[in-house]
Structure formats: C-alpha cells, structure tokens
C-alpha cells in the first residue's frame, strides 16, 4: 500500500512539473486567450483559426514535447492543420462540451470532443487539463491529439492548401475562404460543361441502342430524359467535386442539400415527361390499331388523361414531401403533427370528405367511362362536347363556344344524355306541318334529291325516310328522318332539309296549309248536315263551288 502511494506521489509530481513548464517556448499568452473551460478552449481556438490569428493557435495546443525554439513555428503549422481537419471532419455540439473549469466529472483530467476517421480506425480528439502558473486549471488539446494532427491532415486535408498564396486564407466569408469560393465558381462552370457533354454522349449511345429494338418505349424514355438527365448529372458531379474543395461541414451540408434537391427535381421532371410522352405514344398506337373505332380511341384517351393527372398529382406530392423532409425544421413539425394524428385525421377526413369523394368519382369515371373526351352530351339542358376531364370537374364546350364546368359527381349522380356513347353516328329529324292535299310521295322524292345533291357532304348515306307521323283537324305532320356521321353534321343537315323542303312546298299549289270555312244558308241547313267537314287551319280564304268558302 505504501508502495502504491509512493508511485502515485511520483506521478503527481511529474504532472505538476509538466504543467509548470507548459509550452515554455511560447512565453506568456495574450489576454484574449481563454483556456479556463473546455468550451472556452474549443471556442477560442476556432475563432482564432477562422480569424487567421495564427499567433494565438499554439497556446491552445500541448507543445511541451517539442523543443522550445520550435514550439511557435510548429504550433502555428499544427494549429492551421488542425483547423482544416476540425472544419471538415467534425461537427461540434457545444451544449455537450463542458462549461466548468474542472470538467463535467469530478477529478477528470481530459475530455473527449469526438472521433475522426483515421485509416481503418478512428482518432479520439481530446482536451487535457493542466495547472496554470497561478494554480488555476487550463485546458489544451492533448499531446496525443497534437501528435496525430499530421496524420489526420494527410487523410482529410490536402498539401495544396499549404502551397496557395496567403491572401487566399484571409478572414473567411461565412465559413469559406477565398480559395473555396473561387473553387466553387470554377466547379460550377466545369460541372455545367461536363454535364452537357455527358448528356449528349449518353443520348447518342442510347439512340444507337434504341435503333436496335422495335419497341418505341425506349425512344420515349430517351426523349423524356433530355433535360432531367443534365440536372441529375449536375447534382452528381457537383456533390462529388465539392469534396475536393475540403468544405467545412456547414458548407458541405448545404452543397449536399442542394445536390439532393436538384436530383429529386430532375427525377420528378423525368417522371412527368415520361408519363406525358407515354400517354401520347400509347394513344397513337391504339388509334392505329383501332382504325375507324373512334369510340375505343376516345375511351382510351379519357383513361389516359385521368390516370396521367393522378400520377402527376402523386408525383408532385411525393417530390414536395421528399424535398421538405430534408429540412430539420420541417421534420420536427411533421413529427409534432403525427403525434396528434388521431384528431387531425378525423378533422381532415370530415373537412375533405367532399374533395375525397370528388377525387374517387374521377377515378371511377375513368374506369366506367359514362363520358369520354369528345363525346356529345346534353347536360343541364345545354348541348355540347366533352372538352376536358380533370380529377374534380368536367369541361363541356357548349355549341355557342361557352364552357360549362360540371362537377365530376354530376355524371355519377344525375342523368344526362350522351349522344356518342357507343358511336358518334346519329339520326336527325325535321318535322313539317302540311296540308291534307300535299303529295307525300313527291315530298319524299324531293327529300332524296336534297340528300344526294345539296346535303351530300353532310349525309352519310345510311338512313333516309319521310313519314306521316301525326295529324290534327287542320294539318298533317311529315317527319323527315336522316342520318349523319356525328351530331354536328346532323344538326346542319336537319336545318338544310327544313329549308329545302319548305322552299319546295312553297312552290306547290297545295303544299302549304290553308283555312277552310263553310258558310251555310238556311235552305241548305239540312243538306249541309250530311256534308263532310274538312280540317281548317290558319291560312287563306277561297270561295269554293257549291257556296263553300275556303
């Protein structure tokens, strides 16, 4: 026991001797050197290093193992190298660095600031507590850390830094020196040029490979990648090239954040372009295969439009979420929101019930397809064509060029007319009120002439007919039935048939309705009771034989 006590006394005396002779070659430290606590030592060293007060750096290092005449020069060199290593390989959390002169633990003589990779292992960066001339505790970087500075600099630094002129290392702007700002500018130019060259080479190589295949999907992928690929290359080359500038952790973190954000934007851009080009390519292929099956082509176009909008919306949401999750503040907000997910989910579910039902109605409409883009419909007593289908509403182009915006749920909850659900072909009618003496066969022949002559560009040649569909006490009703390729041509053809048949009836002596009235004399009252009564309508009065007025 006495022997162990003796050894302990010898060690304490040696430590005291070393403390008394701390960095004897440096002389008295300047007043601005504060080494009373671990936190003060780290802060003072970094501030002096970043301000390029090189004469202060040796006072924060344990240099007693060096000859006194070498301590100042070696201390400045080692302090400068340690600054580069700490700025690029370690991130300090000052809330965990001791704020007490004796350290956080009673009797502690050293404090670990963290570890830095070195070779296949790590090197512990430590502070050592020594006694000052007045007996007060002082904290400096330990001897082991100082001895490892050169090895750490060889791995995390660059000999080029010590060969650059001194004006490149004046007081930094933000956390970067002048040479690093110049390096970033040069890096941006090189990266932009290299990305263009690599993109052109990649497209040339991809184009040659695409020509060897019969599929058109690879062509769409190459076209979609023109542009997004350049952004992705800029992000990759920029993140890799910034490592050569030995940026400090805050700057490197900002560069990596920008590179990741640019990569996410390029990926989202590529997906949006590929979906758009693929939809057009698929629609073109189906149209070529369908031939005259216009309904099938319109149905596929409707499905592609709705599904494309769904994918685009999902892409925007996912890309925005990934971009926001990169920021610590947003992540903390997200965690806080997830903590109250039960109440928030209930509130959002009730508030967004209508929106969600509308979105689901859009998906259902794309699958069931009660309407398709290009269909002729009558909605809310308005006749028009389906011009646009979104996830929440449908745009109907009315015949007078107005736009009727209809909620998506309307087509699932309320009845409407779709004139081209199965086929765009449609039948049209034109009704005429004529006199009973009109020659129906002659009118039917005139209708045939009109369709084969004036209406040849509108009539599809499939259906024509003229029938007596009704009568009253004064007139009879003729209905002309014609067919057309679509509703627009059918409307124009109906108007043409009406116009031409009215002109034909005007030229006939008994074509238009007349008013028939019978005047009875007293002597002929009994006889007239047995006379036939002819229909009468608005028109002209004519005196007929036998005392009747027409």
TrEMBL record:
A Pfam family of this chain: MS_channel_2nd
Signal peptide stretch: 1-19
Localisation per UniProt entry: Membrane
Molecular function per GO: mechanosensitive monoatomic ion channel activity
Domain of life of the organism encoding this protein: Bacteria
A cellular component annotation (GO) from this entry: membrane
Gene3D superfamilies for the chain: 1.10.287.1260, 2.30.30.60
Alphabetical keyword list: Membrane, Signal, Transmembrane, Transmembrane helix
Annotated InterPro entries: LSM_dom_sf, MscS_beta-dom_sf, MscS_channel_2nd
Domain Mechanosensitive ion channel MscS positions: 355-421
Main location group: membrane
Protein name according to UniProt: Membrane protein
